[in-house]
# Entry
Amino acid sequence: MTDTNTNTVEFINLKVGEIAPNPEQPRKFFSEEAQEELTNSIKANGLLQPVVVRPVEGAKAPYMLIAGERRWRSCQAAGLEVIPAKLVAGATEEEAYVLSIAENVNRADMTIMEEAGAYADLKAAGWEPGKIAKQFGKTETHITWRLGLLTLRPEVAEMVDQKQIKSNLAWHIAQLSPANQMVAAMRYVRGDFDSEAEAQHFANGLKMMEAQTSLTGEKAPTAEEQEKQKKAKAKAKDGLGKAEEVLIPLLEELAEKKPEDLAVILGDDLARHLRVVGRLYAKVQMVRNLLSKAQGIQRAQAEAFNKAAVEVQQEAAAKKAEVRPEAAEAEKAVAKPAPKSQSTAKKAVAKPAAKTGTGAKPAVRRMPAKKVDAAAK
# Structure
């Protein structure tokens, strides 16, 4: 633990306004519902557990919180003017921060990302993961994995804080590139996987894809290798067929019996059956885990190829967009008509001459034949 031999501790009553919150408080999220419950409890029973403070010089408030910000907030909301406090004098900034982490780190309402951030602050101050683990009663692996979550992109970190993604899966997702983090997180949250383990295997598969310099960089299998793969696939298929035909019906038959019936039916052979089924169970668990990992790799490969296909399509569309303006200009140049000569243009727009009193012959009006004969007479 931190050496506090030079620190002095006393219990005093302080005005709420004499206390200021710690700006370096490791907890950043406070549940409104839980806060309201605490406020109601304090209204009914008073503050049962004192807040922890230390004196500060030259500040607006003479005391700063080390631990108990939720209680201090609820005391303000409950209208309390004076509250009990545990005054720790002589504590350094680092000691005060360690005390505040110790106060919150094991609370259920401290989020995983807040805990990771608190450990990161201590690491930045020169603390090794082993020292942090010893200080707070954690394993070094726990500290290392929490620190590993700090590479999560903000959207995924928020999913972790909201408990949509558990810490173990979050660590595997944190090992991915920001883009793939979002892919793995969204697919898990929307229910694409039957279990957290499947999602973890998918994340590991994506990590393998990232480690490859090229999806098509590997050599194509030779004819001999293809033949071996074909035989292995046929053998596995044949083995599964036998299991479905023989083993599964046998286990189903045994499962339908009562324990007292099996004790009589199997007799001396019961212990052997138990050993064989135990071995089968262990092998099935191992193979199931292997198949789940293989499925994760297969899904990751499909995701990577789909992503590559989209990138190729986008690249082709971009090139087409670059060529299109040049082609359009060429088409305009070809389709543009040749300029008309001046005389042709004038003829095209010439209008009929207006009638005048001289020079223009009057139009001849034809008369019907009968009228012409009458006029002649």
About this structure: Strands lie at 8-15, 19-20, 51-55, 63-67, 82-89.
